[in-house]
Amino acid sequence: MQKRNVILDTDISNEVDDQFALCYLIRSLDNVNLQAITIAPFKGTGYTPVKNLAEGVDLSYNTACEILDKLNAGFYKDVIFKGATSYFFENKGINPASSKIIEIAKANEHTTIIAIGAITNIAKAIYHAPEIINKIDIIWLGGNSFLTEKNNEFNFRQDVEGTRFVFNSKAPLVVIPCRNVASNLSTTVYELEHYLLGQGEIGQYLCNIFRNCKKAYRKDAKDIIGESKTLWDLSAIAYFLNKDWFKTQEKSCPEILDDTSYQSTTNRHKITFVNDLNRDEIFRDFFIKMGYTCLLYTSPSPRDTER
């Protein structure tokens, strides 16, 4: 079987879900060529306050290197490329990540770009080399579902012009909305500790960052009760690995209005939107690939099958 070429475009220091996504991808590289990890820009958040986009890019670069070391995959540090320090709407200039995207796309028959941050690097790559749209497909986590009026979502709102440019480019594009779709990938520290503790340094690391990620948002001691967290970015990796876990719909490319909302169309090129996902299949695959094994699998009891 011919290996599939993939680029991961990530703002990995912005939030904890990117760290989980990188781990998931690295542990899923059978029949996959990881060609590059490109660093996407991000504005500061409650999770990671930064002074400017350049500082965020540097932090993300360092975080990616740290995780690769914990996964005993340090050799992939050679294919990490720093990306844009300005958004597409501010500056359409090239950067090392966008240049590498162009280089890889031209060199391969086909390359998939998994984008789990602002889509700026990809927009700049297509702007400078529009011919690559015939040699790539893009899986992007961004925006919200059509059940939500506006796409006031982190990846989308940071660079609306860049998003609009990629949508209009006619590059093959799968959009995984956050609210109402990827939001189903919610978990708790108790589930993660059950499956990840004991899986070496990386398992402890993931549990630690998850446990601490919401501290800045707790207003009261009781807020920890019933607390969960969505690992949004796992969805994009999972879609690349197994589309059967997703329900999709092809739609005429919507117009993106300045307030971030979609305006439906009927006569434009098609974009694939994910409408639903199988949460349990995705987490099951992730936990197994991270090393969890259970020798106690049993056939369901008659009582279970009657429910």
Structure explained in plain terms:
This protein has 307 residues and is α/β, with parallel strands linked by helices. The chain is 35% helix and 18% strand. It contains eleven helices and twelve strands. The strands form three sheets. The protein has an eight-stranded mixed sheet, sandwiched between helices. The chain is globular. 42% of the residues are buried.
Question: What structural keywords apply?
Answer:
single chain, 307 residues, alpha/beta, eight-stranded mixed beta sheet, two-stranded antiparallel sheet, 11 helices
Q: What does the largest sheet look like?
A: 8 strands, mixed
How are the strands of the largest sheet arranged? 3-2-1-4-5-6-12-9
Output the number of helix runs.
11
Distance between the termini: 41 Å
Shape: globular
The radius of gyration over CA amounts to: 19 Å
Give the tally of β-strands. 12
Beta-strand fraction estimate: 15-25%
The H/E string reads EHEHEHEHEHHEEHHEHEEEEHH
Mean of residue pLDDT? Answer: 94
**Structural class by secondary-structure content:** alpha/beta
How much helical structure, as a percent, in the residues?
25-40%
Low-confidence stretches: none
